[in-house]
UniProtKB/TrEMBL annotation:
It comes from Fundicoccus ignavus. PANTHER family: POLYISOPRENYL-TEICHOIC ACID--PEPTIDOGLYCAN TEICHOIC ACID TRANSFERASE TAGU. Belongs to the LytR/CpsA/Psr (LCP) family. This is Transcriptional regulator. Residues 102-244 form the Cell envelope-related transcriptional attenuator domain. Keywords: Membrane, Transmembrane, Transmembrane helix. The chain crosses the membrane at residues 21-45.
């Protein structure tokens, strides 16, 4: 074999290892992808486990004293039916309070997977109504002080003529902690006012931490009274939801879960939460806000909100429609 043939043979032999290096590079990329998928899967599993553990801490059995209005308790895991949730914001934890507290925030949400609609109805805290189970008329927010979640649910069921399927109670300190856990919220005030050392300006988008957001939602004396405060409370909840759904916020899920513990109680099980997430997500595409309204009146030296009968009847009809009670 001459020198040129040896050279060609040598070059031919050197080409094969290059193909192997190319294949090896591709294989290395595949391995990295598999590792990334494994890490993501582990992260998702870890999140799932932590959420499940936290939900077990938040969960509380439905009170024995709560009247079940439906003939059969709703089972959203078996059938996608509209349901209602009573949200109670308790003033325990606010300004250092440690007593039973009152439900200074009272909202009823209905979620309908068939119409893909969610409604949120605010109930004025001073509304004069029958306190079911206490044998008297009083401010509706006193129902919690008299009989906790059960009496609150029974009183709201009686007032709005609908079943309350689930309840969520949050103390006011919880709102502050949750806002901080989601990294703060951005709200555009509808009025100009000052509260607890903070200044808010109408129409000016404002980033708020938990303390500032709580101050914003607390004012009710110079910005539309209790109705103005309820509107700001709805802004607060909307701001929390938007911040919580931000992708970057999800990496702080441990802080969010920690903010719920000790501040939130609910009778929604973990399995129900998964069902709501998987089957009812479309219902939040359209959110309608309703407000029970009336006029203030002094009775025996105590201020009450006397609900307008026509406003109340209109809200009752709408909520019954949303829950498909007349079908």
């Amino acid at each position: 074999m001459d020198r040129r043939e040896q050279t060609r043979s040598s070059r031919h032999r050197r080409r094969k290892p290059r193909r192997k290096r190319k294949f090896g590079c591709f294989g290395f990329i595949v391995v990295l992808l598999l590792i990334a998928i494994g890490v993501a899967g582990f992260y998702a599993w870890n999140v799932y486990r932590n959420v499940e553990q936290t939900t077990a801490v938040l969960y509380t059995e439905k009170p024995e004293g709560q009247v079940l209005v439906r003939e059969e308790s709703i089972d959203i895991q078996q059938e996608e039916k509209p349901f209602s949730v009573l949200l109670l914001g308790i003033d325990t934890g606010d300004m250092g309070r440690v007593d039973q507290g009152r439900s200074d925030v009272m909202m009823v949400a209905t979620v309908n997977p068939n119409t893909n609609r969610t409604t949120i109805t605010s109930i004025p805290r001073d509304s004069l109504t029958d306190i079911v189970g206490y044998g008297t008329q009083d401010k509706i927010n006193h129902a919690y002080a008299f009989g906790g979640v059960a009496m609150s649910a029974n009183t709201v069921q009686n007032l709005l003529e609908i079943p309350i399927d689930f309840t969520v109670s949050v103390n006011m300190q919880g709102f502050e902690d949750i806002v901080d856990a989601v990294g703060g919220i951005t709200i555009t005030p509808t009025d100009t006012f000052s509260q607890d050392g903070y200044q808010f300006y109408e129409g000016q988008s404002t980033f708020m931490d938990g303390t500032m957001a709580l101050a914003y939602s607390r004012n009710r004396y110079d910005t539309g009274g209790d109705y103005g405060r309820q509107a700001r409370q709805r802004q607060l909840i909307d701001g929390i939801l938007h911040s919580a759904l931000n992708v970057s916020t999800l990496w702080n899920y441990n802080e969010i879960l920690a903010s719920l513990q000790g501040n939130v109680q609910t009778d929604i099980t973990f399995d129900d939460m998964l069902t709501i997430f998987n089957n009812y997500r479309g219902a939040i595409d359209i959110i309608e806000n309703y407000q029970l309204s009336g006029s203030g009146s002094m009775i025996d030296g105590v201020y009450y909100e006397i609900l307008d009968p026509s406003s109340l009847a209109e809200v009752i009809d709408q909520l019954q429609y949303e829950l498909e009670l007349n079908n």
